[in-house]
Specification:
2 domains, five-stranded antiparallel beta sheet, rod-shaped, cell projection, bacterial flagellum
Length: 407
């Protein structure tokens, strides 16, 4: 078979070019430290590496989410720790205020200190997570949860609980509604809590219900139904604002007055003292209070003169009621702290599992993509030898011509 000179040149040049490409590819692999430089190098391996890389990226994002959740929960838990300290101090002050030998002035000093605790508590309730997001506003994280009012504080947030995805199938709550922590102090199973003054001599009863047509007028404030010294007339005072909302009204059995969205009904009780007694009083409160309203009530009580036996009896009654409310508020705070602590513990465990999973992903990627340097260097040396041999043989082959013989 006759092989032309053109064929020799074409085949030789093509083979040398292929060897140079192979040598260059091996050099690129060594420089990159990767066995797969393009999907065509290993289609199956490339597809598998893509899936693993995506899973690893998602796992890294979960780790970032867990870090953010831990930061937020840690701030929230620390804030509630401070709230717990404030409430314990409040309880101590209220116990001190119940000392019967204290004067009105000395009780006013305690009231001033309680006012400082109230302001501190309000500041803690409006804490942020360090990124200007309020901790206890529910979903309304850009709105300060509480606004100070004359009767304590009003809640501006919602009942939502913000969560963050921390694992494939797990969302962790990173906030709590302010109402769940600082509110939800049930003073009654009914819509309103009506309590007779402990110094009352009559057994008349007072019942309160929402007046549906005027529901929009509800204030959430505290009221007092008080009879005069004859027991024949009564008035209603908004003790939160200090305004008399129902002037002296003659009592008949029963009598109903409508004020601020409420129907207040006074009726005779049972027994020989069924009618209201002189100076009898009844306190009307919302059936659900927040801690700010409780503290405001006890502060107002401590600033009211209590030099008579009746005044001291009423003061002790209010202190006992406030103490019970503070206990309920403490229970709410401790429940929220427990939930936050449980979430932090779970996040630690998820971090450990996520770290282990990340190592597995990276090991699998290494097995698929990383270069075997010993094998690659051996292949590089081999390609260099083959290329040199091919080049030399090509030179020899192209020298076998009639013109070379003639020379």
């Amino acid at each position: 078979m006759r092989i032309s000179t053109t064929t020799i040149f074409q085949n030789g040049g093509g083979r040398i070019s292929d060897l140079q490409v192979a040598l260059n590819r091996t050099q690129q692999q060594i420089a990159a430290g990767r066995r797969i430089l393009s999907p065509s190098d290993d289609p199956i391996g490339s597809a598998r590496a893509l899936v693993i890389s995506q899973s690893d990226a998602v796992n890294d994002q979960y780790a970032t989410n867990r870090k953010n959740a831990i930061n937020t929960l840690s701030v929230a838990e620390n804030t509630l720790g401070n709230v717990t300290d404030v409430l314990h101090n409040v309880k101590t002050l209220m116990v001190s205020a119940g000392n019967g030998v204290l004067s009105d002035q000395e009780r006013s000093y305690i009231a001033n200190e309680l006012q400082g605790n109230l302001d501190q508590l309000l500041g803690l309730a409006n804490s942020t997570d360090g990124t200007e997001a309020y901790l206890f506003s529910g979903f309304s994280s850009t709105v300060a949860p509480y606004t100070k009012t004359q009767g304590g504080a009003s809640y501006n947030g919602d009942q939502g609980v913000r969560s963050i995805q921390v694992d494939t199938s797990r969302q962790i709550p990173i906030s709590e509604s302010g109402n769940a922590i600082f509110g939800n102090i049930r003073t009654s199973t009914n819509q309103f809590n009506v309590v007779p003054n402990p110094s009352n001599t009559g057994t008349a009863t007072t019942a309160v219900a929402i007046n549906v047509p005027t529901t929009a007028n509800l204030t959430g404030n505290n009221y007092e139904v008080a009879f005069d010294s004859t027991g024949l007339n009564f008035s209603v005072k908004n003790t939160t604002t200090g305004n008399t909302v129902v002037p002296s009204t003659a009592y008949t059995n029963p009598t109903t007055v409508t004020v601020d969205g409420m129907d207040i009904t006074v009726a005779n009780g049972a027994g020989p003292s069924a009618a209201p007694g002189p100076n009898d009083k009844y306190t009307v409160q919302p059936g659900n209070q927040n801690i700010f309203e409780t503290l405001t009530d006890v502060i107002n009580a401590l600033r009211t003169s209590a030099t008579t036996s009746q005044g001291k009896l009423e003061l002790n009654w209010r202190l006992n009621q406030a103490n019970s409310n503070v206990d309920k508020s403490l229970s709410n705070v401790l429940t929220a702290r427990t939930n936050f602590g449980t979430s932090l513990k779970e996040l630690d465990e998820l971090n450990s599992a996520g770290d282990s999973l990340g190592l597995i992903y990276k090991q699998e990627l290494s097995d698929i993509q990383d270069l075997d340097y010993a094998k690659a260097i051996t292949e590089l040396n081999q390609n260099q030898v083959v290329l040199q041999a091919a080049q030399q043989s090509f030179v020899k082959a192209t020298s076998l011509s009639l013109f070379s013989y003639m020379n």
